[in-house]
Design goal:
With 91 residues, the chain is α+β, with helices and mostly antiparallel strands. It has 4 helices and 3 strands. The chain has helices at residues 3-17, 33-44, 48-61, 71-83; strands at residues 21-26, 63-69, 87-90. A 3-stranded antiparallel β-sheet has the order 2-1-3. Helix 2 (33-44) packs across helix 3 (48-61).
Length: 91
């Protein structure tokens, strides 16, 4: 096995080990842009611009990844989004 193949193999192994989960926010016909933006700022620690961009993506694309990380970190944030009346899940 060449050195290049060994390096590539090590990179692929590290990618598998360090998989992150995502909180995906889904569009709904209930919540306003302002409410979604405020909630993302409060729960996910987004900047105002980041929260606005996510709200726009959710509106036009139907969903958007709003946070990535390990499952332990994301569970309480996803629960807070759900309690706030938003549609979200961890994938």
């Amino acid at each position: 096995m060449s050195t290049k193949e060994q390096v590539l193999e090590k990179v692929l192994i590290k990618e598998k080990i360090s998989t992150n989960n995502e909180i995906v926010l889904y569009n709904d016909d209930v919540n306003t842009f302002d409410y979604v933006i405020e909630t993302l700022i409060e729960v996910c620690n987004h900047s105002e611009i980041q929260a606005e961009q996510c709200a726009i993506l959710v509106h036009y694309k139907g969903k958007c990844t709003v946070k990535t990380g390990n499952l332990k970190e994301l569970k309480p944030q996803c629960s807070q989004l759900l309690e706030a009346g938003l549609s979200a899940e961890i994938v």
